[in-house]
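re: ur msg from earlier - yeah i can do the NAP complex, just paste it... oh wait u already did. ok heres what im feeding in:
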Amino acid sequence: MSQLLAGKTAVILGVANRWSIAYAIADAYRREGAKLILTYQGERQKATVEELGAELGAAKVLNCDVTKAEELEGLVAELAGETLHAVVHSIAFANREDLSRPFLETSRDGYLLAQEVSSYSLVSVSRALSPLMTEGGSIMTLTYLGSVRVIPNYNVMGVAKAALEACVRYLASDLGAKGIRVNAISAGPIKTASARGIKDFSKVLDGVAAVAPLKRNTETAEVADTAVFLGSALGRGVTGNVIYVDAGFQVMGLQQPE
Ligand code: NAP
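and the outut:
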């Protein structure tokens, strides 16, 4: 098969390490011939992401903390002259204590922080980068089932993901006339650095593998291939959607006893 993303330039936000979902997406985009631009959050991550970027053949590796307006402006300045075709937003954050105590105990600051990093940033990133998508393109974000169902300890992040999914719909409506599609991929649980912050996360992995129609957990490469679909011409009719890549878990109600 020909390379699905040949001639396309993608900005991928959220590579922290080799286990990041964004890393798998960057690797799949590389495989499909895209020109890659990666971002990292602050000096602490610079060397690691530059090293990963070099392995992936990234054209640029740039700093951008999405909560800082001046860093988003700096990113846009660094991208001057580029035509972007895909933007992958693979970013989320909540205070660890908000992912272990009852949701009822969520503080105002913790609530706002989760919303700012995990939901509002899709709006600010889309506003900043969509003017560079002059040939149309695809913006995508990563979400989780905790947006629509109660998942133990997901708490404030579930509420942020609900807002994120609503942002996807409104952004799809705003940007559709420019030929820019906006979608979310709802991934099944995957052991990454962020996921380790959720109390009892390994119990969620075990539960999903037992119940999901495919009787296993989700692999990052499966999420990445869906990101390729959305970023390529194959996804040209799809916008405003949440696509589940979760071994089918979300369709299950009651599990029949064996
Ligand atoms: P990850 O490797 O820890 O990626 C999260 C990324 O968000 C990191 O690169 C992190 O950078 C970045 N980030 C946090 N705050 C930021 C900020 N202010 N500015 C810029 N970047 C920031 O974990 P992941 O599991 O791949 O998460 C990626 C996305 O997938 C998240 O939206 C997550 O909610 C979603 N998701 C994950 C799962 C799962 O089970 N793992 C399932 C469904 C959806 P630093 O490391 O530098 O802080």
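cool cool. The radius of gyration is 18 Å. ping me if u need the other ligands too
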